[in-house]
Design a protein that fits this description.
This protein has 5 helices and 6 strands. With 189 residues, it is α+β, with helices and mostly antiparallel strands. It has 2 domains: 63 residues; 92 residues, SH3 type barrels (Roll). The strands form 2 sheets. Strands 2-1-5-6 form a 4-stranded antiparallel β-sheet, covered by helices on one side. Strand 3 and strand 4 form a beta hairpin. It is elongated and about 65 Å long.
Length: 189
């Protein structure tokens, strides 16, 4: 099913549409086939412009596209769509999160971020003050930590130096990190 970037092929578009119907594992109704043809036309345009095709996307992107292409969805599928949209957004922001995480965990710093209620917060943090139980934690504690990391990859546990207590920083809303006199500015997501 290869076609050159400048070649236009209707048969490729139709076979690509049926490819989507097979991926979505649904009955080929008129609405489903119509949506599949739209995706196939988009792929043809992308190929002609030298862009990536939808089957070259990540697994979450593909699953999201397949669910959004369905004509009717169940409540569980709509919940899954919401989860996948969040996961895709976090995947795209992961590089930015890694940079912020590295700065905050490296040395004592001042972090400016937007709290959940919309107010701006400035917090002085100290790395290494959190008690990491690791293997000594209970099974429930280990599962809770793993679940929190999976569901909220944007939350970073830190030690608040002023309150002398553990807190969480939402990496998606961090606007500024000051470490060793150098200021790093970010745009909040």
């Amino acid at each position: 099913m290869t076609v050159q970037a400048t070649e236009f092929s209707r048969s490729w578009i139709m076979s690509r549409a049926w490819h989507y119907v097979r991926i979505w594992r649904c009955a080929p109704t008129a609405g489903t086939l119509s949506r599949a043809l739209k995706y196939a036309w988009g792929d043809m345009k992308a190929r002609m412009q030298g862009l990536r095709l939808t089957d070259e996307l990540s697994g979450n992107d593909q699953e999201l596209a397949a669910l959004e292409a369905k004509e009717f969805t169940t409540a569980a599928e709509r919940d899954r769509i919401g989860f996948l949209r969040t996961a895709v957004a976090h995947e795209k922001s992961e590089g930015d999160y890694a940079e912020k995480r590295g700065l905050i965990e490296a040395a004592p710093c001042t972090v400016t971020f937007i709290k959940a209620d919309g107010t701006r917060r400035i917090m002085r943090t100290e790395p290494g003050r959190l008690i990491a139980k690791g293997d000594k934690a209970t099974r429930a504690g280990q599962r809770a930590t793993k679940t929190r990391k999976a569901r909220h990859p944007n939350l970073l546990p830190v030690w608040d130096a002023e309150a002398q207590a553990p807190r969480s920083v939402n990496l998606a809303t961090v606007t500024r990190v000051v470490v060793d006199g150098s200021t790093h500015e970010f745009r909040a997501n």
